[in-house]
TrEMBL record:
<keyword id="KW-0479">Metal-binding</keyword>
<feature type="binding site">
    <location>
        <position position="247"/>
    </location>
    <ligand>
        <name>Zn(2+)</name>
    </ligand>
</feature>
<feature type="binding site">
    <location>
        <position position="200"/>
    </location>
    <ligand>
        <name>Zn(2+)</name>
    </ligand>
</feature>
<dbReference type="InterPro" id="IPR021120">
    <property type="entry name" value="KduI/IolB_isomerase"/>
</dbReference>
<dbReference type="GO" id="GO:0045490">
    <property type="term" value="P:pectin catabolic process"/>
</dbReference>
<dbReference type="InterPro" id="IPR027449">
    <property type="entry name" value="KduI_N"/>
</dbReference>
<protein>
    <recommendedName>
        <fullName>4-deoxy-L-threo-5-hexosulose-uronate ketol-isomerase</fullName>
        <ecNumber>5.3.1.17</ecNumber>
    </recommendedName>
</protein>
<comment type="function">
    <text>Catalyzes the isomerization of 5-dehydro-4-deoxy-D-glucuronate to 3-deoxy-D-glycero-2,5-hexodiulosonate.</text>
</comment>
<dbReference type="GO" id="GO:0008270">
    <property type="term" value="F:zinc ion binding"/>
</dbReference>
<comment type="pathway">
    <text>Glycan metabolism; pectin degradation; 2-dehydro-3-deoxy-D-gluconate from pectin: step 4/5.</text>
</comment>
<dbReference type="InterPro" id="IPR007045">
    <property type="entry name" value="KduI"/>
</dbReference>
<dbReference type="GO" id="GO:0008697">
    <property type="term" value="F:4-deoxy-L-threo-5-hexosulose-uronate ketol-isomerase activity"/>
</dbReference>
<feature type="binding site">
    <location>
        <position position="205"/>
    </location>
    <ligand>
        <name>Zn(2+)</name>
    </ligand>
</feature>
<comment type="similarity">
    <text>Belongs to the KduI family.</text>
</comment>
<dbReference type="GO" id="GO:0042840">
    <property type="term" value="P:D-glucuronate catabolic process"/>
</dbReference>
<feature type="binding site">
    <location>
        <position position="198"/>
    </location>
    <ligand>
        <name>Zn(2+)</name>
    </ligand>
</feature>
<dbReference type="InterPro" id="IPR011051">
    <property type="entry name" value="RmlC_Cupin_sf"/>
</dbReference>
């Protein structure tokens, strides 16, 4: 079996206040998602959210069920979102083949039994970053290019947060049960994402940072607005954000990150703002 999965448990803000750096990283930080011909997953007890990385190089990789799901096949009761952060890849979904290029997305609805991943060129392998959530009904599988995304540009050069948000898997682009995914690209010379920060107690979130230049890093901020903490992130690493926590970051260079959400609703604008001057 080429699949490795670990479980991370939910935590309250009172418990998290007592963590040291190592404990925070152990609970929230995902240091590795990609390895040749492997599927890595982390199963979070926050909204039963699964984060993973799939990197086919010399062989095809099949999405297999795992013990945490107690299901006959992975998507028996789940939906799946993918964004390719590597070379061109192909995804076969019950025999229907989709070609997914760099920074393109694929949504796969509940009930699909056989999902197989391959790379077009082993020297430039695909890297499928995945998010999966529980699903109560079935929606059609859909390939989403950046041209089909809902695109919003926010921030400014003066405040160091000029960025483009590509909403790829959201209700305005296609129907899903609860999964939302998108990609935010920081423009050159800008470092701040998701500022002003916010929480949304009805949804959890996972951030995946990539296109972080060699020798650079991103400081990801988390915690309650009046008691924030940070986790240093390297390229192609992810971090879990509890519903009660802010999720924001600043890098030593510009970078790109993928956000994925699940929870109570599909309202992208459901945010409880934390004014910059009130952060502690």
């Amino acid at each position: 079996m080429n699949t490795h999965i670990e479980t991370r448990y939910a935590v309250s803000p009172n418990e998290a206040k007592a963590w040291n750096t190592a404990q925070a990283r152990e609970a929230l930080h995902i240091p590795q998602l990609f390895a040749a011909d492997k599927i890595y997953m982390v199963y979070s007890h926050f909204d039963r959210f699964i984060t993973g990385g799939i990197m086919p190089v010399k062989q095809a990789l099949k999405l297999e069920t795992v013990d945490q799901l107690k299901a006959d096949y992975f998507l028996e009761r789940r939906e799946l979102g993918l964004i390719n952060v590597g070379g061109t890849g192909k995804v076969s979904v019950d025999g229907e083949v989709f070609t997914v290029n760099y920074k393109e997305a694929l949504y796969i609805g509940r009930g699909k039994k056989e999902v197989i991943f391959t790379s077009e060129d082993a020297n430039k392998p695909a890297k499928f970053y995945m998010n999966s959530t529980n699903a109560h009904t079935t929606y059609p599988t859909k390939h989403i290019t950046k041209n089909e995304a809902e695109i919003v540009t926010l921030g400014s050069q003066e405040t160091s947060n000029h960025r483009t948000i590509n909403k790829l898997i959201v209700a305005t682009v296609l129907p899903t049960c609860q999964l939302q995914m998108g990609m935010t690209e920081l423009h050159p010379g800008n470092i701040w994402n998701t500022m002003p920060a916010h929480t949304h107690d009805r949804r959890m979130e996972v951030y995946f940072y990539f296109e972080v230049p060699q020798g650079q890093a991103v400081s990801h901020f988390w915690g309650q607005p009046q008691e924030t903490r940070h986790i240093w992130m390297q390229n192609e690493q992810a971090v879990i954000s509890p519903p009660w926590s802010i999720h924001s970051g600043a890098g030593t260079s510009n970078y790109t990150f993928i956000w994925g959400m699940a929870g109570e609703n599909l309202d992208y604008g459901d945010m409880d703002a934390a004014p910059i001057t009130e952060l502690r």
